[in-house]
Amino acid sequence: MSKIMKKTISSNWFQAVVYRLIRLYAATFRLTVENEDLWMTYLKNGGRVLLCVWHQQFFSAIRYFKNYAEYAPALMISKSADGDLIAGVAQRTGWRPARGSSSKGGKSAMMEVIDKLKETGLAAHIMDGPRGPIGKVKAGAVSIALAADAVIVPFYVSADRAWYFRSWDRFFIPKPFARVTLRYDRMIPLSPPETESDFEGLRRQVEEIMIKELRNAPEETK
């Protein structure tokens, strides 16, 4: 990516335009939200919640997640140029980006998310981002939830019509006026592990629950 492109992506005006375009585009979705009440009640009663999603599905939730701005939730975002854009959009949605990933600055970003999660009660994590492999729950989400004494709440997005990218995550964007469903799964409490094997068991438990909700392009299911 050229220096000019990186500078443009990082500029406030460009991020503001992208944010407005996303909100306008997502407003065309015929959105249905399922199973939100249980974890929201838990949160309002003092519990802590880490919302978790696959990288391929987060786009469709951006507009709706403005509803959680009052909690100033934290979200870990890489320090890449793409991450600059996502962070700019997240900030305008009322979220608090913690910049870092498994390849760069991950430890400090994870500690920032833990601190904010303890403070506000709500954060989110992209389970297989930013580079995959697809469907692989990384250890960071489990570590964050354990350190903050938070439950993990997976959420999934589906659409009756969507475009699928030929990317590592099979990223998809619902088509205009598509029927889109944002569905929250049950809360997953985690018991502190006594051994490394126990920790791996927790990671695999979450992965096994979420893996069934990865989306394939229609032609891939024929």
Feature tags:
9 strands, alpha/beta, globular, 7 helices, 37% helix, 7-stranded mixed β-sheet, Glycerol-3-phosphate (1)-acyltransferase, two-stranded antiparallel sheet, 222 residues
Describe what you observe in this structure.
With 222 residues, this protein is of the alpha/beta class. The chain has one domain (3-215): 3-Layer(aba) Sandwich (Glycerol-3-phosphate (1)-acyltransferase), CATH 3.40.1130. Helix content is 37%, strand content 20%. A 7-stranded mixed sheet has the order 1-9-6-2-5-3-4, with helices on both faces. It has a two-stranded antiparallel sheet with strand order 7-8. The longest helix is centred in the first third of the chain and has 15 residues, at 12-26. The mean pLDDT is 93.
Going across the major beta sheet, what is the strand order?
1-9-6-2-5-3-4
Order of helices and strands: HHEHEEHEHEHEEEEH
The assigned structural class equals alpha/beta
Shape: globular
Which fold name corresponds to the CATH topology? Glycerol-3-phosphate (1)-acyltransferase
Fourth-tier CATH superfamily name? Glycerol-3-phosphate (1)-acyltransferase
- How many individual domains? 1
Radius of gyration: 17 Å
User: Can you count the helices?
Assistant: 7
Mean pLDDT: 93
Number of strands: 9
CATH architectural category: 3-Layer(aba) Sandwich
Briefly summarize what is shown.
With 222 residues, the protein is an alpha/beta fold. It is built from seven helices and nine strands. The protein is 37% helix and 20% strand.
